[in-house]
Amino acid sequence: MSGRDLIETQLAANATQEPVAGPWQAAVIGELVAIADEGSTPLVVFAGQPGTAALRARSVIDLHGAHIGRAVVLMFERADPARPIVMGVLRDARGWPRPEVPAPAQVEVDADGERLLVSARTQMVLRCGKASITLTRAGKVLIQGSYVLSRSTGVNRLKGGAVQIN
Question: Which one in 4, 15, 76, 150 has a CA-CA gap of 20 to 30 Å to 87?
């Protein structure tokens, strides 16, 4: 049997299958109740969902904290209501900003090819795994990691009002 014959056989078989019953064929409106796993997994609820707990979903859009509590458009992988996919966030009729949710913080970035300046109002964190560098508005610089190395080909100076080692 040729590849073309196999494709035609499969298409004919699919044409005779009845669609899955239920509202899962159309878009469903749900609510984003949380974002788990360090911001990578949306949790959603919707009318008629299997069980009472929020369901883990996948998403085709970037979701962030300001979206929590908002209505989302859901579709379902293979028409399975236990496998929701967030297709989008519905806009509020009042537009932005919503009074109960503060606007996302603004971060200023200035790049001219010679220098990169990133500014934030209260705190900036650069994180990779268990390592982080935190800059605070009060002037603190916090460097954390399981292994920290400071190396210099010239002078490596520690200077402060007080210097504590261990």
Answer: 15
Residue 98 lies in a domain: no
Confidence (pLDDT) at 89: 92
- pLDDT beyond 60 at 66: yes
Question: Encoding tokens for residue 149?
Answer: 């190395």
Strands (DSSP E) along the chain, which ranges? 28-36, 41-46, 55-56, 58-59, 71-76, 84-89, 108-111, 116-119, 123-128, 131-136, 141-144
**Cα–Cα separations (whole angstroms), residue 89 to 37, 38, 47, 62, 106:** 20, 20, 17, 10, 21
How far apart CA 81 and CA 77 sit, in angstroms, is 8
* Average pLDDT rounded to a whole number, residues 64-80: 89
Whether 84 and 122 map to the same domain: the answer is: no
* Tally of structural domains, the chain: 2
CATH number of 76's domain = 2.40.50.230
> Is pLDDT at 15 greater than 90 in this prediction?
no
> Side-chain half-sphere of 110: how many Cα atoms within 13 Å?
5
- Same-domain check for residues 40 and 72: yes
